[in-house]
């Protein structure tokens, strides 16, 4: 039978939105494969919310919470070995990187990452994946059984919230959990510095195109004129030009402001993941092919060093 | 303590990428290659550990065009040795690359292997995990910050929403580095020259033992356009006028 197994990702005991996207995608795939949708919950999670699955596989063990990658790979790989699903779906999230590849390696199954779309064709799965920072889309064909890591935002969540049989099975944890080679020590909440960019109504977000820390001021001036907070892409924070608490994206904050003003940001999938649902996105990037323009509502290829001062000046003039 | 850092060159994404006539790969004849930025961070992390705790650092890379320059630069940055893995012609998929690298890692027998978290030029993002699986070592990805302990390392793993955890990992281990605690340092040309003059790079042959990844590329395409942004053209002043106006219309200009 062509079952589809979904790894349910949780954060602070909450089911991550990507899990519902995956359940919805799994429903379609399972239909085409003539199988069912199975959801794997490793540790604690609100089973009541997982009505999108036909079978909820629950594995409990003290070492599964808080999250330790090796423990979760062991549980997922064990479920794949014993239940033999034809398709395994994992979010292409931070934890998904460990899990998808670790599970594929442990079970000898092929892996396709960065998936935006999945379709069954005979006994194979045709996937569309993002490559080269979103500048190229690749179509691949992979014989099942295989593992797929799906980019957040690719499927609607609603389709994965119901429609399953909702059976529940409790499964014993794998023996590997007693021989883990890594341990959880401590965790840290986001933030520091007293800013919470997820609360800002308007964000001016700065990318590597700003060139250096000496130019951040240009964006700060614009932010001031707009009454906006400053956000940033990952390299800007990694370079120490702005604090980490201001990072938007996969390994930073997810924001949904009324205005997201992206300056010198290429729009890599990992960045888009954190801001694509903003109400109005305006992007300034001198490269007309930059992927940020795919999600922006308005864009310009003007040089940011010309545009930012000009815009700041006009906004100040308007405010009187 | 011996740390191996695995390095790879990827196309510079600032450049325009074209698809070749076969339609299944990018046109590699004119692309500018550069060190994968996460590998750059992995190298920085290794050198920082060497400086703080005393470690030997070996840079490892599969032999491809231009890789010598990458390895000399790694030596100039502080790597003690550089190892080129001769794995034959053609672009290897990441599972086969991992299998070739694993052979070299077995010979080097380091305590710790650092890779970049991912590279944007392949479909898998599995080199590090697969390398760890072949070696039978533990693996952690998306790490920003590694500290050495006795027989263990402590790593900061990043999650969505800005949360992080510290994990203690038994050695030997493979760690996928997202970011070093400080930006990768700049190599002065004089140091690079010194590294190049200091002798040939080491090399080993490592044909991949693993089977191909089992994923067939049917075709590459540029993402469909048209659904995207309304582009505002003109001089910066005009564009600024229009943006100011459209923000004002939506009540977003001030407040
Ligand atoms: C596991 C993982 C997690 C990640 N998490 C995140 C994350 O949370 N957040 C994140 O942002 N990234 C994240 N990344 C990194 C991501 O892949 C990209 O590398 C990053 O988003 C690129 O940042 P950027 O757009 O600022 O830089 P670049 O991609 O270098 O883009 C700079 C842009 O500026 C433009 N530009 C240059 N000069 C000018 C000028 N004068 N005027 C106008 N435009 C100009 C260029 O055309 C270019 O498009 C992650 C990567 C991985 C692998
Ligand atoms: N062909 C290769 N040669 C050397 N190192 C590689 C190769 N492929 C991947 N790597 C390493 O593995 C990391 C993850 O790559 P990937 O699995 O391609 O996303 C890279 O950042 C490198 O450190």
Percentage of residues in helical conformation of chain A: 25-40%
Radius of gyration of chain A: 22 Å
Total beta-strand segments of chain B: 13
Proportion of residues in extended strands of chain B = 25-35%
Present as ligands are:
flavin-adenine dinucleotide, adenosine monophosphate
What is the terminal separation of chain A in angstroms? 69 Å
Report the C-alpha radius of gyration of chain B, rounded. Answer: 21 Å
Mean pLDDT of chain A: 94
Euclidean distance between termini CA atoms of chain B: 56 Å
Helix tally of chain B? Answer: 6
Q: What order do the helices and strands of chain A follow?
A: EEEHEEHEHEEEEEEEHEHEHEHEH
Largest sheet of chain A: 9 strands, mixed
**Largest sheet of chain B, if any?**
9 strands, mixed
Structural class based on helices, strands and sheet pairing of chain A: alpha/beta
Strand fraction of chain A equals 25-35%
Could you spell the SSE succession of chain B in H and E letters?
Answer: EEEHEHEHEHEEEEHEEEH
The stretches of 5 or more residues of chain A where confidence is low (pLDDT under 50) are: none
Average pLDDT of chain B, rounded to a whole number, is 92
Description:
The complex is a heterodimer of chains A (320) and B (255). Helix content of chain A is 27%, strand content 28%. Chain A is of the alpha/beta class and 320 residues long. In chain A, the strands form 3 sheets. A 9-stranded mixed beta sheet of chain A has the order 9-8-7-10-6-1-4-5-11, with helices on both faces. Chain A has a 5-stranded parallel beta sheet with strand order 14-13-15-16-17. In chain A, 58% of the residues are buried. The model of chain A has no long low-confidence stretch (mean pLDDT 94). Chain B is of the alpha/beta class. In chain B, β4, α2 and β5 form a beta-alpha-beta unit. Chain B has a 9-stranded mixed beta sheet with strand order 9-8-7-10-6-1-4-5-11, sandwiched between helices. In chain B, strands 2-3 form a two-stranded antiparallel ribbon. In chain B, α3 packs across α4. The model of chain B has no long low-confidence stretch (mean pLDDT 92). The termini of chain B are far apart. Chains A and B meet through α3, β7, β8, β9 and β12 of A and α4, β7, β8, β9 and β10 of B. The complex binds flavin-adenine dinucleotide (FAD) and adenosine monophosphate. The site of adenosine monophosphate has 20 residues of chain B, from α1, β4, α3, β6 and α4. Flavin-adenine dinucleotide sits at the interface of chains A and B.
